[in-house]
Amino acid sequence: MKAFLLDDIDQLRDHLASQRSLFTPQYTEGSTELNWLPLTSKTKSVTTERPLLPTYPAKQFFFPDREILFQFDGSDFKETLPEPEPQILFGVRSCDLCAIAYQDRFFRQDPYYQARRRATLLVGIDCNMPCEGGFCPTVDAGPFVRDGLADLVCHQQQDASWLLMVHTPAGEALIQGLELKAAESHHITRRNKQEQQVAARFPSATHIETGIQRINQAQVPAETWQAMGLQCLTCSGCTNLCPTCSCFTSYDRPVADGFERERCWDSCLYDAFQREASGHNPSATAGQRVERFWFHKFSNEYTKTFDRYGCTGCGRCEKTCPGVIGVHSVMKRISATL
Amino acid sequence: MKTLMTPQLIRITEIYDDGEASSHFTFEPVNGINHSARPGQFFTLTLPGHCEAAFTYLSLPDAEGRFKALIRRAGTLTSALFNCNAGDLIGFRGPFGNSWPLDQLLGKRILIIAGGIGLPPLAAIADHLINSNNTQVALIYGSRSPADQVLKYERSAWHMYMPILETFDHPSSQEQLAGTPLDHLQEMTVKLGGHPEAILTCGPEVMMNAVGHHFVQNGLPPENIWLALERRMHCGVGECGHCYLGSSYVCTDGPIYSWQQLTRLQLQTTA
Q1: CATH number for the segment(s) B8-96
Q2: Which residue intervals of chain B bear CATH 3.40.50.80?
Q3: What is the 3-state secondary structure (H, E, C) of A30-68?
Q4: pLDDT tens for residues B155-206?
Q5: How many Å is the Cα radius of gyration of chain A?
Q6: C-alpha span between B211 and B139 (Å, rounded)
């Protein structure tokens, strides 16, 4: 891995933006929401204050909430694969990069996802302090970016200057033309040590660890799931904001001379998610659906395929859930039972 | 080149009524696009404007690519399909899913147990086993009433090649067997010439669970009991999430599971 020293991260951002469309988390005017938006002359300097997660993860860039799969013109079906412009996501946090790697595997044979993913380069930023509700160290998803999950990784050092790590040939090509001083091995060593220090600053997450154990040993009583199911308002906030959630449905929309099939995000917490034509519903109760959602996030059954849990510790579900059954609330309840 | 998400055109060539709210459909490829499939696999049909749904092969594609399905009218998509006529073009994707374990069945004494609309998913494997010389096969078919029975012509052909018992929750005459398939196992064991060495079943989950428990309790290894499960298969390629069964997706890991696999998945969660 090549590594360089960088005084001004905004200069790097501008250099990258001169080559491809660049999106980075920014506050929408008049709102407290941090959103993924295109870089403009009004975009502020890369923040060095406490790290904040964008409200939405980056999954919408590859798996948009709505997309057309094909069109029917009255005589035949015409596939409509996306033809995305080359783009860069700048400032992706470690948890969201782990989720992108997870979805890369999940959608490995999906041509729509892969077309968008292939057109995108990723620039990660290490988190130098915990974010509210985040617990990435507990699920091996941060706080620093894992090797190979981004093309470039930026790390702010204690003297406020930056270490720039190059993980892919595409990342190396991006920084051509920038005059950068090579970093030395002690810079890397110091970064590794600092990750341990940052991880140690996260609040205790023993409820997450205990909850994971209980889920994997099938020790959570059905009544506990049913009690939490009563609190699910089926709003789909958790599944929309979860960076690894990927369920979708599709429907036909009439257009001139035919129709187009659109797929859109779905939620396994909706009561009719599994209902069959006969009326039979294998997950008819909210408790069953809540149980299955958390099983999908924390079961060891999935680590064989994905090399990690389906939860990356971002904590978005806790922030958004109006029923107070986000990850911390659920795992506290689970770890308290027995 | 179309991907697996985009349908191909197929033509409906024949439709006839076959049982309560059910019809028997024959399809043929359009533009010479043929495909092959294995017993137990499924496909989806697109009715333009009504999206798509999954159906099982009643018969596999022949040399000309013709295949059949038995479909019950249950919702808006099947209602649109039932309004179609022979000659109409619709969309097709497939084949999807795994198949009945053909290699593990050869040479065994096999009992097929079907309930209601669960008979069509067993038809292609029944045909396959009948044509396998060293395999003994028999069928018990349970229905609510005689009017609910499907596959009239297929069953009359099968009668020549394998023992068949038909049972009814509500028989319409004294000659008809009352009860469920499990109530008549004794008679079938005699006809089959011994206890079955493998079970293939499809029907309501309550029935399949009863079948699985019965044969395991009677000493049949759980890996020799096979079930065709239904879930809401939607995308067919293991992505949309609708057909989950524990950590498994029925559209890619199934729809055929052994009792051993199923009981392991059922221990994971209650859904």
Answers
A1: 2.40.30.10
A2: 102-268
A3: CCCCEEEEECCCCCCCCCCCCCCCCCCCHHHHCCCCEEE
A4: 999 999 999 999 999 999 999 999 999 999 999 999 999 999 999 999 999 9
A5: 21
A6: 14
Per CB-CB distance under 8 Å, the chain B contacts of A283 are: 271
Report the largest interatomic distance among the alpha carbons of chain A, rounded to a whole angstrom.
67
Query: CB distance B48–A252 less than 8 Å?
Result: yes
Residue of B nearest to A272 (CA): B242
Q: Tell me which chain B residues have a C-beta less than 8 angstroms from the C-beta of A263.
A: 240
pTM to 2 decimal places: 0.95
A37, A24 in Cβ contact below 8 A?
Answer: yes
What is the predicted pLDDT for the residue at B192?
A: 93
Q: What are the start and end residues of each CATH 2.40.30.10 domain in chain B?
A: 8-96
- CB-nearest to B268 from A72, A111, A295 is A295
Q: Which residue has the tokens 């939490």?
A: A228
Residues with Cβ within 8 Å of B116's Cβ and at least 6 positions away in sequence, in order, are B142, B143, B144, B148, B203, B204
Whether the ω angle into residue B95 lies within 30 degrees of 0, i.e. cis, is yes
Report the distance separating Cα A68 and Cα A166, nearest Å: 35
Handedness of CA B232, B238, B241, B246 (dihedral sign): positive
User: For residue B46, what is the DSSP state?
Assistant: E
Residue reference for tokens 């909850």: A211
DSSP string, A78-117: EE----PPPEEEEEEEHHHHHHHHHHHHHTTT-HHHHHHH
CATH tag, B102-268:
3.40.50.80
Instruction: Judge: A250–B49 Cβ closer than 8 Å, yes or no.
Output: no
Domain count, chain A: 1
Q: Which domain holds residue A160?
A: 2-200
